[in-house]
Amino acid sequence: MNKTKVLTPQERIGKKPDKLFLFRSCTGSIGYPGTESAVREVLIKLGIDVITDPDQTCCSGAVAGYSGYPPEASLAVTARNFAMVEKKYDADTYCFCNGCFVHISHYMHDLQTDPDKMANANAIINQWGYDYKARNNFYHVQELYYLLLDEIRALVVRPLNGLRVGCHYGCAYLLKKYGIVDDHELPTFHEQIITALGGVPVFYKERRSCCGSGAGRGFTHKESVVHPHLVRKLDSAKEEGVQLMTTVCPGCNMALDAEQPVLAAQGYGPYDIPVIDLAQLIGLAIGVDPKILGFTANTVSLQGVLEQVGLGKGA
Amino acid sequence: MSREYDRDWDPDLYKKIDKYNSVKNLEQCLQCGKCTGNCPVAAITPSYNPRAIINDILAGSTARILDSDEIWRCMKCGTCYRGCPVDISFTSLILELRFAALESGHGQKYVVPANKFVFRSMEYGINFVPGKRGMERVMKLRSDMGVEPFPKVTPEAIEQFKAIFEQTQTLRYMEKLKTDTEKPLRLSYAEGRIVNE
């Protein structure tokens, strides 16, 4: 019970890394590919060497979440991915998906605290010449944005002109509860980032509530549970005049963005609140080409938002 | 519904349920109900009650948990854990309960349709790979952005990913789930009431 709950980003990460391994996510690279390239562009603008590797596979967290198989396979997949990073690059790993973050942190913790699990996982991956020693650390990129908040503020060339932005933290990062960069019950560090970009953070009522996706929406838990919940969340955002919602999890992004037409067909809304990743918004503000940010993947158009930051056409 | 007798109850149930040792401290539960008060699912479906589920497990009631569809409502947002004063990971408990339910032949209908994603991820090394039409859309989106048309995973990595699932018997386990006959769930609830007793 005496574990530290909130760490400053300096305590959590230390100093700014020169290089990092970027852990690609499935939805963030396929369904909303703008997320991956936005994160990459933002990190490059911040002067950090970004490494990705096609030898990295799925974190296997989502599949474990909805298929009901026991955890051994996922432990070995985690060990393989991180043994590969250790062997080739010896760099800390950053992911940009809350789902990857919570599953990998969970499995890493299990591997590091349970010698049996570690031995089993290593016994499988040894045949390919890998040996996981847990030498490097694992973070979410949002922690890095918070660490480099002053640098981001200095880079802003396209201020958001008072755009009303509602933040969605996603459950899975705050779910770590201990040793994260903000209070898990009342986090405000996204709002600080939004303010630094020239936007107006909106504290809507259901700000902290879940997107309803989890892993396995529609399968392990039914839409009949998810939709009323989403309606509640989006209603409260609409009430407060949210013009744009940001996420730090491609899964949440999909759930909040792609479900809006479905809800509209059921007679709710219409909401028309575009949902993008925090990295895409930072990228937009620090002058990354909107084409690279990939807003075309979004279901709800960002035209209004782009006009407000002075990008009328194109994008 | 068959009657539940106290001779059917198992005082060590909470240890057996926690087969993969991921909850660890279930018997510390204070029954304060913060998990239920915070739960977004309980707010919509009153019959879903995390506090009551823990209470039943600690009391050792085996009948009413594994073959009801209550354990298949959780969205795994973890709000229960975030509010819990003794840090019981209820989301881990839900996963353990689902493993146990599948083992006793209940609830395949919730996971077998989703398993197609797992089998598909064996071919690509990543998850959520779309079908033909979706693939064209993704490739166009990515090409327009000036990145490679599809996120690349090396054939060796895909092979190793699949080998891990084979060697841990996971694929066999999922094939077996497909062919097992499912015992129907005895109780189902809607809006807090039992509807098919």
Describe this structure in words.
The complex is a heterodimer of chains A (315) and B (197). Chain A is an alpha/beta fold and 315 residues long. Chain A folds into 2 domains: 9-141, Glutathione S-transferase Yfyf (Class Pi), Chain A, domain 2 (Up-down Bundle), CATH 1.20.1050.140; 150-308, Rossmann fold, CATH 3.40.50. Chain A is 47% helix and 9% strand. Chain A has 17 helices and 8 strands. Chain A has helices spanning 9-13, 26-29, 34-45, 61-67, 72-88, 98-113, 115-125, 141-147, 149-155, 171-174, 189-196, 223-239, 250-258, 260-265, 278-285, 290-293, 303-308, and strands spanning 19-23, 49-51, 93-95, 138-140, 164-167, 200-202, 244-247, 275-277. In chain A, the strands form 2 sheets. Chain A has a 4-stranded parallel β-sheet with strand order 2-1-3-4. Chain A is globular and about 55 Å long. Chain B has 197 residues and is mainly alpha-helical. Chain B has 2 domains: 6-106 and 183-194, Orthogonal Bundle (Fumarate Reductase Iron-sulfur Protein, Chain B, domain 2), CATH 1.10.1060.10; 115-179, no CATH class. Helix content of chain B is 50%, strand content 2%. Chain B has helices at 13-17, 34-38, 40-44, 50-59, 63-66, 79-83, 90-103, 108-111, 115-124, 132-144, 155-167, 170-179; strands spanning 189-190, 193-194. Chain B has a two-stranded antiparallel sheet with strand order 1-2. In chain B, a hairpin with a 2-residue loop joins strand 1 (189-190) and strand 2 (193-194). The termini of chain B are close together. The model of chain B has no long low-confidence stretch (mean pLDDT 85). The chains are: A alpha/beta (315), B mainly alpha (197). At the A-B interface, helix 2, helix 3, helix 4, helix 5 and helix 10 of A face helix 3, helix 6, helix 7, helix 9 and helix 10 of B.
